[in-house]
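Components:
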Amino acid sequence: MLKNVDKILDNIGKHVQLNEKEKGIFISLLQTKSIKRKEFLLKPGDICRTENFITQGCLRAYTVDENGFEHIVMFAMEDWWISDLYSFLTQTPATFFIDALEDTELLQLTKPNLDELYQRVPKFERFFRIILQNAFIAQQNRIRQNLSDPAEQRYLDFIKKYPKLEQRLSQKQISAYLGITPVFLSMLRRKMAGK
Amino acid sequence: MLKNVDKILDNIGKHVQLNEKEKGIFISLLQTKSIKRKEFLLKPGDICRTENFITQGCLRAYTVDENGFEHIVMFAMEDWWISDLYSFLTQTPATFFIDALEDTELLQLTKPNLDELYQRVPKFERFFRIILQNAFIAQQNRIRQNLSDPAEQRYLDFIKKYPKLEQRLSQKQISAYLGITPVFLSMLRRKMAGK
DNA sequence: GGAAAAAATTAAACTACTTTAATATCGGCA
DNA sequence: TGCCGATATTAAAGTAGTTTAATTTTTTCC
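Structure:
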């Protein structure tokens, strides 16, 4: 029996109901992967071969600009999916780095296996539609906030919205997600502590 | 026969193949709506009753902050869908304004009708999954750009990526999408023209 | 077609955030 | 346990983008 399958089935069960046969098909198409802290799951230029469900640990997807600064487009921890979606769907070279911030356990679906899954268990069309709806809404909120809120407000909202994540991340990671420098985040924290 | 049905069927046909019966079911669940320039489709506090497909015209979804500044989270024109997705899915009060930048023709699906559509024509699970994938990727690129690129670069990329949209929008609208003031956009344009 | 409103331009003062650099602290691992 | 590289702090100077306000240009609409 594949490790951590219970976790992914629990998660899927929150959105669609699968019978035993459907569960069996799904599980047969999964594979596991472990990656250590600081190891890469994906680099720009690679083809993103899998959609990745995290059963344990924490990853980030990011770019590095011409000055060497990292910009984090998403964090992902237990029960989240992560990939370079465009690269995965089109099987063309990725633009993002994905690496592990902690030792991490994944369950993976390759593109051919996901395509087969959609054919054999159409309920997964619904499942991923719902996952994408939620991701779309979360991203739209982030865009709205980046447009309208100053850095201090964005920081406060981040720690309020993702308290568990905040515990596990360095300030450097958080600042690369918020779109400010680590220096400025440190200044904000001092200012806020003084209140 | 409902106006503009051919346009929406063409668009759907790019992603899934429907037979005549499925097309019939779909069409029977649609309704049309016209809105004039400057009219509102949705305001914060309203419940977003419909997903809206644009057959003609141009809309924007935006918020207004405490200082009265508008922040545009999305534009939408012909062949795009627009709604306040969270409000629509949960049928709770909206957070966005949606209004028309030009006289606009819509085809609408209410929440009950969309739910019925998913039941009766499961291919629409796939269709909206694909639409959401594309929207997710576009939003992720926008987030990445907001994090890493200065305003001038974001403006250049906007006019390159959405040349048709740029023709139809005032600089005020574009600046509210880019996250800068109209004054600063005007300065950028002068500087760029001087090159 | 003309008046009024909205949008765009320009300039100057201002501020949120960056950059650089030096010092202090933490965390991972031999 | 202790060392070393990475992370965090602090301060000071610099810059991208804002604010305000006055003027011009364009659009709206009766």
